[in-house]
Every structure is written in structure tokens, then in C-alpha cells.
Request: fold
Amino acid sequence: MNATLSFSSQIGKKTQNRSILFSVSFSLFSFLSYAQVKDTTNLNKLDEVLISAVRANSKTPVSFTNLDKKEIAPRNLGQDIPMLMNFMPSVVTTTDAGNGVGYTGIRVRGSDATRVNVTINGIPYNDSESHGTFWVNMPDFASSVQSLQLQRGVGTSTNGAGAFGASLNMLTDNYAQQSNGEISNSFGSFNTHKHTVKFSSGLMNDHFELAGRLSTLKSDGYVDRASSDLKSYFLQGTYIGKTTFIKALVFGGTERTYQSWNGVDAATLASDRTYNSVGEKFDSAGNLEGFYNDQVDNYQQDHAQLHWNEKVSEYWDTNLAFHYTKGKGYYEEFVDDYKYTNIYYEEDAQYSFLGLDPITVDGNIISSTDYSRRKWLDNDFYGTTFSANYKKEKLDVVLGGGINRYEGSHYTELLWMQYPSNSQYGDLRDVNESTKNDANFFAKANYQVAEKLNIYGDLQLRNVQYKANSVDTGLVNDNFNFFNPKAGLNFDLNNNNALYFSYARANREPNRSDYKGGSVKPEKLNDFELGWRYRTAATAVSVNGYYMRYIDQLVLTGELDNVGNPIRTNIGKSYRLGLEIDANFQLNKKWSIRPNLTLSDNKNVDFALENSDGTVTPLGNTDIAFSPKLIAANSLSYTPIANLQLNLLSKFVGSQYLNNIEDTQGELADYFVNDLNVSYTIFPKSVFKSIVINGLLNNFLDRSYISNGADYGGGYVYYYPQAGINFLVGMTLKF
Reply:
């Protein structure tokens, strides 16, 4: 009750902040919208306007890859979006549960998910504090994605935290002209099953559409007890006028997953690769008694977006969006006195850690105990994004930005203790709040200075104000002002060939976990990209070279904190130098092949190891952790008849260190995995428009491989094994 009153007292302040924010945004939009006189020019590609301000095109001098609904659908059988992106260039994916359901992650050019900027319809999705993208909070979101674009490197200016490895922007479902519906069901290994229902009213009176989706997804996971119980929804209403396009969306999900973020050590990997140590319960002699049933992550996240696009004139388009995200949930855990005192050498089990005094039981002083707790997060994220696009003949200009605010409350709820104490169960501890204001404004221009030459300029100003105070972060009150310029050239050699070059500057603030180590600096990046694009009716080839020079890069150390978050540290100077090749060959009507390859060199410059005695050992240039030098993928497609498609999907990831000192004890071996995807469509004469049968045989050569790990030094290395051969099969009824 006290906690509720404490949080309720903030409502008036939050409401005032939101009113001011929306008023300012509406004024900006009104200025942009009515600077020109409206006409009745028809809207073109209405849905694409939602993300046009942050997407690249063939004239933009950056490296990018698109993935649309048609390509996603055959493999959309329950696995998360990162797994569906696994075969894109420079991408490495991993999953805690081992089978692509639950907590999944993505790395691009060696940069982890906290450094990949993600937007949904131009709205930031990365968590404001951790910078992470938690796909488990939006299960089956792929079923509501029309297309996505992955820009590698800094890319073009976007909303939210700066892109230091890549930016991913997603466009949700387009409106439908005709009413339709579909029912999808899929089943597979590890008791995995997904059930989805979608509908659309079609355009009613040529102006209105209502569409939605409900999904439920469950899986036991490949790793022991790594179960997932996921539910999600998606609802959108669309209005289309002669010059107006309005879309309102609400979507979200709930997840309950058993924790599996510890990994396994080498000895356990050899004997029982699916073992999950999370939730272990020991007796006083150290004998394993069993596992805590409720060692779960339990979270709900709901999103609301309102988009208003206006065709002001033949040359001007404007876009205004408001958004609000509500997240609340906890992870629950059992803290075992024996385990934490004798194995982990941590203080979590101590009464002092709980802010309590030792007690006396039967004449014995008790200073530690078994107990269970819930670590809560209650947060609100809201704001606005806006843009105006002027396009006429040789000039294409975008003016835009966003103003957003995050308010988060963190607290611990004590559920149970082995020994009585002066504490009331249900007490809240370590109650702390954090806020983050993020405002950015950008101007982009692409100008055709000659028949074959385009120049590109992109300037962004970004201000970040972050405040926090907890036992983990200490007192934080930082204010960052970033200037992020970008420029480039695109030269069309002829109708089929184009060359481009670009330079981009990016700055990025630390995340919440980075402050746990004490003093931390923002990161800086200078990104140089040089590429060649070749395109004909049957062939597309893209070759891109990049040189990313970092100052104070926050690299992964290989260690994880006690809730599975990666620990990072500033390392001074570092760089990533690489070559990306992406191609698509339509060999004939039945055969096509789409290979990609990334070769890279990723180095810490003049890296020095800090020893436990305070001395420093210089190591020179060392490989950056989690950065394989070779990544390759291929999709071989065969269409023997019009309604049947077979895809052989292959992925190779080279060896990579889990540390920054090139210690081979913490090195992941390379792996080569192959999947088989089958899609067959039936067109009945009545009832259904089509019946689509999809099958996915993952890792059909049954390779034992590891895609992720943790290295705590001194040989303490833990691994995240992935599933061997497994399958998913599904059927979609469309009507």
C-alpha cells in the first residue's frame, strides 16, 4: 500500500510533463503542416510514410538490407525476430533457451543488441535505461510486421539511442483494401506451439479499416526448465482521406519465462549440455535438493501509437506521432544461503545485504539465510516524433526529430525468509526511481548535383538528461549534448552500377548497467563506408567496406551481472574494419541463390590488462570480445512447381573470444548450421482463399554448437548451448 501511494504521488507530475511535451510537439507539427497550402494530390505508399524519415533507399550512401513479409512468412512459426534475421549480412543470433523462443539476442558487426537502434514505425523501442531490445515482451510480433530494414553501421539519423552497430526499423502491417482473416497454428520440438488469429475489415466506405491479431505461444525450451508462456495482441485502426492518413495502434504482450541466463561450465557441458543451474536449492551440507518452481521472469508491456500523415502539397508531406509504452513486471528468484556463500562468493544471502541485523536462533547468531524475492520494474515511456519531407525533382529533404521521456521505478519485494526476522514479508527494499529525457532534431538532404551524382547530408542534434539513484548505480545526474553529422556521395556509373561513400559521426550515452562500475564515459564513433551496388532484373550484388573508429567504446568484458546483463567497460581506442558482400542471383525460373559474407578485423588498440594487485600488463592490439572475423550465410531456393518452395538455409560463424585478452580458455569455436524450410500453398475452390503449409527443420545435420558464452576470468567460462536437430511445422488458413 505504501508503495502504491508513493507511485501514485507521481501521477500529477507525469501528467503535467506529458501535457507540456505534447503541446510543444503539436505546435511544431502545426507549423510544418500549414506552411504550405493543401491540395488534393493522392497519397502514394501511405504506410511507408511512417518510416520514410528513418529509412534508406538506393540513393542513400549507407549499407542496408530489407526483409519483407513475403520473406518472413515461411519461417514465421514461433521463433523471435532475431532468429528470422539470422541469415542477413553481419548478423549473429543467440537464444538463452536454445531454440529461438523466449529470450533471444542479436549482434551486428560484433556489436551487441544494446547498440542496435530499434524503431517501430519510427518510434524508439530500445529500453531507455538498459538500451536492450527484449523481443520476449512482444511474442509473435513478426506476424504484424510488413517489412523491416537493417542499416549496418551508424546509418541515417533515427530516433532513440545512437546506432553503434546497426539500426533496425520495422513497419507494421499495411491496411487492406478487402476484408480478410487468417488462422495460423504451428507445432514443433520441445513442446513448442503457436496459435495466431488475424483479421481485417478491409476499407469501409473507402476510408476506414480495423485490423488485429491475437497470439499465444508456449515452449518448454531446449535447456532444462527454460520454458516460455507468451501472449500478445495487436490492434490498429486506419483512416484514409484524399490528403490525410491516420493510423492508431495498440499492441503488447505478457511473458512468463523460467530463467536460463547462467549457462553451463565446460565440465557440465560435456556431461549434460541442457543443465540449468538457475533456481538450485541446496541443504546445509551442500546436497542439491531440487529447484525453485517460480524462478521466473514475469513482465507485461503495452504500447500505444498514433500517427497522423498529411499531404500538404505536391511536394510536402508531414508526419506527427504520439506514443506511450507501459511496462511492469518482475523476476523472482530463490537465494540459497549455501550456494551464494560457498559457490558464488557473493553477499546476496547476508542479512546486511537486505538491510537487516543478524538474529539469534537457539543461541546461535544467524547472519545469512535462504530467502525469495521479486525484483520489480515499473516504467512509463512516452513522447512524440515528427517529420516533414520536401521532395521535388533533384532535391529530397527531411526535417524531423523526437522528444521522449522515460520514468522508471525499481524496487525489491521480499517474499519469504528461512529464519524469522524483524522484517515484514512483502516489504519493499532498494526503492529507487530514474528519469530520462531524450530530444533529437535532424535535417537530411539528398541532392542530385549532376545526372549521375547525388550528394547526401545529415545533421542531428541530440540532448540526453539521465537521473538515477540506487545501490547499483549510485547517484547519477548526467546531461549529454551530442552532434552527429553525416555526409556522403552516390555515383551512378550506368543503369546497373553505382558507387557510394559516406562518413558518419555518432555519440552514445552509457546505459544503466555501465554506471555500476563507477566512472564511465560516453562513446564516440567515426564510421567510414565505401560501397558498390550492381542490379539487373535477375541479379543484385552489394559490396561494402567499412572502417569504424571508436573512442571510449564500451566493449563487452565477457562477464554478466547477477541478472544476466552483460558488463561493459570503456577501453580507449578501438576499431572495426570489414568487408560485406551481399548478393541475390535468380538463376532461372526455379532456382535462386542469396549468399552473403562478412570478413572483419576488430581490435582494441594498445589494450592493457588491469591485474588484481593493481599493476597493469600491456597487451598491444587485441581482438574485441564477441567479434568473429568471418560470418557467412546462404539461402538456396528451389521452386519445382508454382505453389511449392524449398529453401536450404546455411549459416557459418567463425571463432570468437569471450574476452578482450585473447585468452583461448574463453574462446567459442566456429560453427556451421543448416536449416531446411518448406512452404506449400493450396488454393481451394471454396471457403478459404488459400491454405499455406510451412515446415522448418532446424540444424538438420544435428551439429552441437554454442552461440554465446560468459568469461569471468581465471578459467571460469560458461556456455549457452543451442539445440540440435529440431523442427517446427504450421498451417495457415486464409479467408
